[in-house]
Amino acid sequence: MSSLLYYALPALSSYVMLSIFFLRRPRLLHTPWVSAFCPRLGAHRGGSGERLENTMEAMENAVAQRADLLELDCQLTRDGVVVVSHDKSLSRQSGVNRDVGSLDFEELPLYKEELEVYFSPGERVGCQRRAEPAGVGSQPQPPALFSPLGPTPSPRACSPPPQQSFSDPSSHNPSGHFAHGSDRHMVRLEDVFRSFPRMPISVEVKEQNEELIRKIAGLVRHYERDEITIWASEKSSVMKKCKAANPEMPTAFTISRGFWVLLLYYLGLLPFISIPERFLISFLPTIINRTYFPFSCSGLNQLAAVVSKCLCYPAPHQAHHEEKSDPTPGAARGAGGILVP
How confident is the model at residue 157 (pLDDT cuts 50, 70, 90)? Predict the structure, then answer.
């Protein structure tokens, strides 16, 4: 046993020192890539904290706030139009119990007059309780920070279908603040590309909809946005199809890949592994409210948020990823999230 320790301890010590050395100097093992853009302020859902999410008004307001990246989610309508919408269902956004894919683009209802913002620095975990109006869904929604300037498409001449009331499973929980806006129209991804031709945009695909992925890839190529449009998805299976549809677009980490890199970091193996992803997009736990930390005690919620942040965003880990990317990287914090190029 003593002889084993005699050899094992020096070997382990050498491994730890080498890991720390290359973690702080990743360019000795990896050639850095130069990004076409370096975002420092991103607008989640097009700027959902100050205007209604994913509307042209929200995006224009976000640009006025000096945002330099738009984060969007896309769905496909029944007639094959790629629209900017976070949810597949229209219940939370419009109060209509239909899916986006069950309606043509011209039939899509207006957004509600107000939508709750679930991620807000002013409404941290464990806030006061308040009753929510009927029809406000329970899915998390971060605030809007910026939007690109550009012409707003003319409103569609259509009236929304009759709204249907539905119960809100989170109505007993404390709520954040609400976003309002005069523009309540859903927009096409193509209109966003036209209005903000050089604005970097992260496009998230939530499901394995090959037609949606193919059409997004085609729009990106048509408007020559391959270098400034990011593929994003929580699922690795979806990301695989996205990369196959347009491999020229940079990619963000999926959830499983993110945890894998975090595991490699704590095992000391991260400096020796090549990372193909260009961006890390994640929420900052310290400003996530009761949706993810539903403890009855606000103190426990805050402690859980701080511990989660320390585990998921250790400074050396973040610096290592930045050093392997652009020579002058920057972390964009906003809308309840962090984006590291």
Answer: very low
* pLDDT tens-digit map of 118-154: 665 444 333 333 333 333 333 333 333 333 333 333 3
CA distance 230 to 120: 24
Whole-angstrom distance, CA of residue 302 vs CA of residue 291: 13
State the CB neighbour count (10 A cutoff) for residue 218: 13
pLDDT digits (tens, 9 = 90+) for 272-286: 998 899 888 876 666
Helices (H), the chain: 2-24, 56-64, 91-94, 189-195, 210-222, 236-245, 255-267, 298-312, 315-323
Burial of 129 (0-12, 13-18, 19+ CB in 10 A): exposed
pLDDT over 90 at 300, yes or no: no
- Give the C-alpha separation, 302 to 287, whole Å: 9
3-state secondary structure of 83: strand
Residue 199's beta-bridge partner residues?
none
Contacts of 123 (CB under 8 A, 6+ apart): 174, 175, 176, 177, 289
- For CA atoms 317, 321, 326, 330, the dihedral sign is negative
Structure confidence at residue 136 (pLDDT): 33
Strand partners, 235: none
Phi, psi dihedrals of residue 179, rounded to the nearest 5°: -95, 145
Alpha-carbon span 260 to 253, nearest angstrom: 10
